[in-house]
Structures are given as C-alpha cells and as structure tokens.
Amino acid sequence: MAKFSGAFDLKEPPPWQNCCYCSSFTTSTASATGDAPSATLTNSSTTANLRQQQQQLLAFKTPADFVRHLRAQHCTVEGGSYVCRYGYNGVCSSLPLDGVSDRDYEMHVNRCHVNQQQKESQIKWSVFSAAQNLPAVLNDPSRAKQTNFFTKKWGDSFVEQQSFGTVPQLPEIKWDHFEAYLKRIGKRYRIHTRIAKTALPSGGDGDGVGGTSSQQPVVSDRLPNGAIANLKDIPEVFLKQQLELHSPASFGAVFPGISNEAEQAKQSSRMLQEKLSHYLDIVEVLIAKQVAEKSSAFFHAMTSQDAIMEQMREAATHVSRLRSRLKQIDDTMVRESLQIISLERIRSNRNIVLERLKLMSTVHQTQPMIQLLLSTQDYVAALDLIGTTQEILSQELVGVHCFRHLPSQLSEMERLIDKMLTTDFERYATADLNRPFGEVPEKVLEEDKLICIISGLLRKRNLDFIDTYKEEAITTVRAIVKQLVIEVIASSDAEVCLTGAGEEAQSLSLAEWIVLLESATGTLLKLLQRVRAVHDVMQQTADASAGKITDDVSFMDTEAFLSAEDYDVAMARLASLLQSVCNYCHERCANLVSNQSLERSTVSADQIAKLTEIVDRFSDGCERVCGIQSAPLKLALRVQGTRYAQKFHAERKSKLALLLDSERWKQAEVPAEFQKMVEHISKGNFLWSKTIQQNGTPIQPPPPQAVLIIDGEPFALVGAALLLVQIVSEYCRCASQLPVIAPQLARNVIDLLRTFNSRSCQLVLGAGALHVAGLKTITSGNLALVSRALQLVLWLLPHVKHHFQSLEPNGGTSTILTGYDSIEKDFGSHVKEIENKVLAIVCDLVTGQMANWDARPPVPSQSFRNISRQFVKLHEAIASILPEKQVATIYRVVHKNFKDKLREQLLRNNITNNGGPQHGTVVSELTFYMETLRTLKAMPAEELRDETLDDIWLK
C-alpha cells in the first residue's frame, strides 16, 4: 500500500515487490495463533518469527516472480478458464468472474497488478495533500538560487527548517505571569477537594466499620452483605446512555470469557451472574435511598392536590356567573349599537355608489371635451385629460363593463395627438426656416402656435422635435448655400457644374468667391438669428413646463409637468441645437474658403485681409447669437493664410538668395527711402511710404548718402543688407495687415535671417563669393562690410521681435521668443568669427615678419616696414566701415600679439634691456612702430605711450 503523509513517498517500493493480500493474511493468521489476550510470551515470539519468515518469502526480486506467485496462490482454473483471485476477499475487481484464456490472464496480470497496482491502491491525491506549495517555494524572494533544487526529494523536508526569532510587538510570556492565577485557582481547587472528601463517610476504611456519618440517611445504603452501595463499583459500560451489545468491544466487556471451554464457561457464567446481581443490588439500594430522601416532596405533592381541586371548583363558579352577566349586557346594550353601525355602513356604501355614478357620467363626457380642446390647439390640456381619465379607469372604475373599450380608444387618441404634434411641428419648422429674410431682429412666426405645439410635445416627453428642428435647419443651410452658388454662377460667363453638396467645382475666380462668401455669411447669420429666436421660445416653454420662473406672462398659468431628468435632457439638446447649426454653417463656409480654385489664383494681401474681415465678422456674429466659437471657418482661413505666407516667404527667400549670389561685397550708396525706412523702424513703425511728402505733396527725394545713419551711428553697408531690411519690413507690414498669419510670418523671418546668416558666411568666410560673384580675393574690407551688415540685423532684431509680440493676443509665444534669441546668438557669433578672421590675417603676417627679424641696422628694418604697411592697409580697409570702438578693439588685439611675438624674438636672440647696441636698435624699431600707430589714431592716445612697451623686456 502506498504511503501518504500529505505528499508522495518517492522511496515506495514498486507494486510487484510484495503481495498485499498475502501480507494481510499472514498478519491475521499470526494474530489467530494466540489463544487469548492472556497468551504466553512464548506464543508471541513464535508468531513474530513466523510472520518474519513469511514476509521474507513474499518479497519478490523481479516481476516474473510476482506473476508466478499470483498464478500459484491467487488464481483458479475452472473448465480451462483462468479466474484471478488477487483482490479483497479473493475477488479481482477488473477481471470477469467467468474467467479468461491463459494468454489474456497473463496480459491482465501485467496490466492490472504489476504496473497499475499502485494507482488502484493509492489514495486519490489532491492539492490539499501537498506538504509544500511549490509555486510559493519557487517564488520566494528571500531565497537565493539553489544548486541542488532538481536533485532534492519532494516532501516535508523539501524546504529547510527555519527558526523564527521573537516578535518585538508581542511580549515575552514566562511562568511568572501565571503565578497569581495558579495561586487563586489552586486555593479554590483545594477547598473544592476538601468539601468533596467531607461528603463521604469520614473516619473509616471504606466499608463503614468504625466510622460515623455526619448526616445519617433515612434509609440505610448498606447492601445485604454489609457493604456500602457505591455507584463507582459498577463498570462504566453499564452507565453509558446507549449500551450497544452488538458491538464486539461492548459485548466482550459485559460478558468476559464467554468463549472459553465448557467447564470454565460454566464457572465464568456463575461469576458473571453474581456480579450482575451485585450490581442490581447496588442500584436498588441507591434508588431506595433516593426515594427515601425525596419522600417529603412526594407527600407535599399529594396534600397540595386537594387544595388545587378546591380552587378549580371556585373558578368554575366564577366563570358561570361572568357568562350570565355578559349575556345580559349583549342583549341590552351591544346588539342595538351594532345595528346602528351596520346602517351607517350601508349609507356610506350607497354614497360611494352615487359618487361612482357621477364619476362615470364625467368620464362619459371625456371624448367630446378632448375634441373641443384639440380644436383650440390646447394639446397639453387634452393630454392631461386623457391621462387623468386613464388613471381613473385603472383605479376608480376597474371592472365597469360599459367602459371596457374606453382605455384603448383613449390610447389611440393619444397616439393620434402625438402624430398631429409631430406633423404640425415639422410643417412649422419648414415654413419658418424657408420664409424670406426681413429686417433683423425678426419676430417668431406664430409664437402662440409654436408654444402650444412645443408644450404638447414636452407633455408627451417627445424630445425628438429638437433634433428634427436641427436637421431642418441644416437642410436649410445647405439649400441657402446652393442657391447662392447658383446665383453667382448665373452672373458668371463660364460654364460650370455643381457638386452634390452645392459647391461650385473649381471654376470661379477669387473675387467671385469672396463675394459669394460675404453673401453666404450674411445670409447664414440671419438664419442663425432666426434659429436662436425659436430656440429661446423652446427654452422658455421648457422652463415653464418644468416649473422654472419665467418673465413671460403667457406662461404664468402653465402647470409644471416636465420632470427634472427630462428638463436636463431638453436643455442639453437645445444647447446642442445651437452648437450643431453654428458649426455646420462654419463648415459650409469653410468649404467655400478652402476650395481648390483659390490655389490657382494669385492671392494678394488685400484679398486675404478681406477674407479675414468677412470671417471675423461672421465668427463674432455667431458668437453673439449662439454664445460659442466655431473653429472650422477660422481654420480654413488660416490654411489660406498659410498658403499665402508660404508663397510670400518663398518669393522673398529666393529674391534674397539671388541678391546674395550676385553681391560683390562692396560698399553701396544708401537711398533716401531706406534712411526714412530705418527711422520709422527705430520708432517701432513698419507702415511707411516710399514716397517723400511735404504737406501732403510729393517732393523730389534727396540724393543718396554714403552711409546709413542709425541712432547717430553710421553704417557702411552692401546692397544686400539694405534690401534685407526692406524685405523684413515687408514681413512686418504683412503681419500687421494679416494678424491671422503673424505667427507664421514671425517664423519665416527667422528662417530668412538664418538663410542670410549662413549664406553670407559661406560666401565670405567660406570664400564662396570667389566662384559665385567672381571676386579675386576676400579682403578685410569685405569682411568688415559683412560684419557691419550683421550688426545692422542685430539692431533690427529687437524691433522685429517686439512688433510680432504686439500682434499676439498673449504677448508672443515662447517658441517665437526662443527662435529670435537663437538667431541673435548666431549673428553675434558670426560677427565674432569675422573679427577673428581679420585678426588671424594680421597676426599671421606679424608672426611671419617677426620670425625673420634681427636687431641690426638698417633701422627701421624691412620687417617693421612691412608690419607698419599692413597696419596702414588694414586701417584704410576697416576704418571707414567699422565703428571706432570695434577698430580700437581689433588694433588692441593686434598690438598685444605684436608685443608677444617681439618678446619671443628678443628671448630667442638673448637681447636684454642693458643699454647695448642691440637694445638701441630695438628701441629705434619700436619708435618707428609707435609713430605708425599714433599716425593711424586707431587706438586711444593713452594706450600708445612709450611706457606701454616696457613689458616686452624680461624682468
């Protein structure tokens, strides 16, 4: 048999190693060898030796031995058929009782007993039999990776035992905590034990001799043989509530030794009879003692029985007297009063019948009254009357035969009224929305009729009329747009076709589209005002129907019948009505604006401004009427503006690229209009006129100037820089005229300036102008002109940035601000690169000349002459272009570099300040050098003193 302790035992022997049923037979045989529980030690040892020998014989080494054992011991042959007897009580549970052939028997033994015995005999395993939870063991985060995991045996010892420490939240319990309890309970227990002992006879040896009891019983509890009757002498088996003699254990306890030999059985029977007689005597004596102790209670019960009978006789007399008195009262007082109550009930029932008849008469007049109310268009009253009548029929007049068809007639009439209301409302909506437009604001068409229809629909809780009106309004919008397109097409000479939605198919000119859009927006705005007027009537009617306070006197007498939930739904649908119609109008107009015919037209800024004006006027009107802002039309306008801005930017960008490629990087004259333009820009005004006027009359412009004066500072510029300022001012003027595309124009300006910066860097610093413009070389003058052009852009950037910020509602977005800051840094770094380029050219020449110089006559040497000549050329090239501060900065760096190179050359030639001939030569050279700088006046006079050259000598 397989072993189970909550898990499978992996050490269990195979099923064919032992014979299960022979082992059990051996055990029972061994048990039977003993004669009785009182068998001798010799017999027990003999049985154990026999069991051990048989178990050794039944241990098989191979399955073949086990099969031979089954054929020899657990198989019978009946008429040539083999019957398997290997099983409980010699019956195999898997082989037929009529037997099988020899070959089938062999297959049965191998299949059912050799290989499958364990499955049949084992207890069915379940998840509750597991001693460990394998997923919990595998997922334990506190355990590290185990190297012997797959080699361990599954069972109780799969997980190592761990000791748990004390919990700090729980106190440590010791034996000292129980001392007080043990003392208190121990004292009580000792008292209880002493009292229990004193209840027994004291001073004897248990048989009553030589001792006296504290309380002498009335009847003696001694047996005939003189012993005291004690219930403890009776075995416990006789004191059980259910004595089961059919149980072998109970039978053996009651009748011990009944299965012995005949002579011994007779003796044991006598002894058993004497014991049972003794037990009976004990019970009889104790019963007699108990009866004697309770005798006083028995006598008291018998004496009280006579008193109870006397009391019952008196009670019966009183009951008879009470009944006679009650009969007298019933005859004299109660019957007449009950008759009065019955008459009153009859009267009440007859009054109820009269009221019911009057109610039936009123209900009979319901249908004519409903017809009268419908003729006056009082739908709410008619529906209320139908509802009230149906309620009366279902509650008050239930089962009246003459009204059996009236509920169905009223329901049919109610459906008819609902259909009438829907039809009348649809007819009213069509007539109201399609009538000609008059002066604005208009009055609602037949307002009283509309109120009656809406009240009836609300009374029926039919809120779909709002969606019906919305659909009718949308249909009207579609028809209006189509009619306007037809009118525009009729006035045009071109042959065009219409799409299904009513828009023209890409053939109208831009001017015709603007006229169409203006007409459409004006007409649709009037339609929206008409829809808003009907919406207000609907809302007022819903407010009055829900019991809300309204200022209109026509709703003063209206009874509230609309629930809060229906009122909320009606308000939501009314809000959706205005929003949907307004959005649809914007979408239809957006289809006009975003039509593909605009892409083929040459759009001007004035036309975009006109479109913007139309869109803004229509959007503001829709917001006043509907209280909401719609985006489709503005998005369509923004798309058109974006296309215009892209085209505008592409033209200017290509123009600037052509200017830069053809630029010779020579100083250009500044026309008067550019000077005027810069003066306006410095004041923050980009809207200026090219013509110069005086008192409103154009005058001849002054001749061009050599430089551009900005805030009192001259700017020598190339022609591309002047045209760049003009192009940027055009962007700013366009943004002022078209605020809708101002953010895109601001980004385009950044892109334009980046193009100018990168292209000028490629042409000058990168020497691209040598190939593009045909320049022979890039001179310092060219670099200075580029630097001055970049400085002009740096002056222009804050004004442009402030201009675009003023056009934004929120003062400009962070993206635009970041873009302008970035382009400003790029221009500043470009100016620095040009300055470094000029310095590098001069410093390289100084370094080359100083490398060949030596302190010897003639003075000045050729190296110093070349350096002075280069300084003069540099000054001639940049002095008239760059400001004095920048020129001084350049010469200050060049002068410092000259001193550093001279100091290195003096150190190399070991020339010191010792007054020798070489020292005198150096002083003469420096005197010539300083005179050249003083003549150029490139640096302040205090920086050109002779003392400033003392640091070239090593200390």
UniProtKB/TrEMBL annotation:
Domain of life: Eukaryota
Region described as Disordered: spans on this chain: 200-221
Name used for this protein in its record: Vacuolar protein sorting-associated protein 54
Annotated Pfam families: Vps54 (PF07928), Vps54_N (PF10475)
Coiled coil: none
Keywords: Coiled coil, Golgi apparatus, Phosphoprotein, Protein transport, Transport
Subcellular location as annotated: Golgi apparatus, trans-Golgi network
Segments forming domain Vacuolar protein sorting-associated protein 54 C-terminal: 713-844
Organism: Culex pipiens pipiens
Record domain Vacuolar protein sorting-associated protein 54 N-terminal: where: 273-429
InterPro entries: Vps54, Vps54_C, VPS54_N
